[in-house]
Amino acid sequence: MKPHVAVLPSPGLGHVIPLLELAKVLVVHHGVQVSFLNITTEASVAQNQLLHPHTLPPGLRVIDLPPADISTLVSEETLVLTRLCINAEESLKPLKSVLMELGKLQALVIDLFCTQAFEICNELSIPTYTFFTPSISFLAFSLYLPTLDRDVDCEFIDLPAPVQVPGCTPVRTDDLLDQVRNRKIDEYRWYLLHVNRLPMAAGIFLNSWEDLEPVSFKAIREHPFYQKIPRPPVHPIGPLIKRDAATTESDVECLAWLDEQPSNSVLFVGLGSGGTLTAAQLTELAWGLEMSRQKFIVVARKPSDASASATFFNVGGDVNDPKSYLPEGFLERTKGVGLVVPSWGPQELVLRHPSTGAFLSHCGWNSTLESITHGIPMVAWPLYAEQRMNATMLVEEVGVAVKPVVEPGKGVVAREEIERVVRMVLEGEEGKVMRRRARELKVKAEKTLNFGGSSYESLSRVTKEWKAQHL
């Protein structure tokens, strides 16, 4: 009998995808049986398609948790993290009985927003691990946040200098994640609650590896601050990215179009599972792409002036007609040069394609890892959550991205600036340097995941412990 582990992500594709990939790796490469617990409350069309294909490996089964009624607890105005946390809290009320029905478990792996599981698993004597799905540098910041909260009285964005995370590159106040920019809101309280519970984990898995983030990794392992606080063992096991995606009819058309394009010539524009632009910014983006005269694929969504994460809970479910919101005549004028895909595109397949030369990305961590794993340089376009921190790191430390500049007093990136950075990354000398760096990291990413590589061995050490308990 193989050891049995349960895996529990919080809602949203950005959380589900890396935990599902971890589940597959455990089953296929480490001889572990996995029950994947799926929160179905407000699950998007794309999430349901991802978790119920016919291609999951034997030994991995998806268990749908019953949907919870959260209609009286949230409204249209509820911010995305608060909504996510309320959803998880309500959906996990039957967790104890679900875990008991599964029989003897060697471990439960949760993500950051399912920490209600710690108390339940403590009662049931199940070791619980956290899979921290953003970057190592963001884990360093998050472990430091309770100290920052205690020591600083003012709002963090009003600090006179960048936040000095112990042993790491200082974080500019402009780059701080949305959830900590206002300490009076529910989102801040939810985030602080969950990071305060991180020490309850038996270990923290990280979707990264040492070659990508050497400074932050060394800080968490060796800096006196992280030695002093109650920090569980950390296990870098990344980059775990979405692979072997099922293709739809529109995906096939998209890939066929790419087949006709020259090598490294196409800019892929995709803003993640939740990302949307304002109407004014979408217009500037369209004009900038047209003016650049470069090949492009754009995953187009209806603009939202209310929220940059407007499609977080309904990705893949919005039907839209790009003609209704792109500049008049744009589709006709760019025919043959560009391809517009409504709502949702085959990101991993596009990034893997030899014709793709650059990626205009919101810098969510999953997308960042996909880009680096395929050796693709980026135009960094952060929208929400910790994406500004990721973007700065990719530009200034990793050297695989360029970030457009917003002129003072303007709320949007101008079309001329978009034209400049698109040409630069696809045709310029700076773009060639970034592409070389991305390709170096691609080779290192493959190496770390293979048998004997640091991420493979890091996960293997934990699974050996589970197997020893199982005997």
Automatic annotation (TrEMBL):
<dbReference type="Pfam" id="PF00201">
    <property type="entry name" value="UDPGT"/>
</dbReference>
<dbReference type="InterPro" id="IPR035595">
    <property type="entry name" value="UDP_glycos_trans_CS"/>
</dbReference>
<keyword id="KW-0328">Glycosyltransferase</keyword>
<comment type="similarity">
    <text>Belongs to the UDP-glycosyltransferase family.</text>
</comment>
<dbReference type="GO" id="GO:0008194">
    <property type="term" value="F:UDP-glycosyltransferase activity"/>
</dbReference>
<dbReference type="InterPro" id="IPR002213">
    <property type="entry name" value="UDP_glucos_trans"/>
</dbReference>
<protein>
    <recommendedName>
        <fullName>Glycosyltransferase</fullName>
        <ecNumber>2.4.1.-</ecNumber>
    </recommendedName>
</protein>
<keyword id="KW-0808">Transferase</keyword>
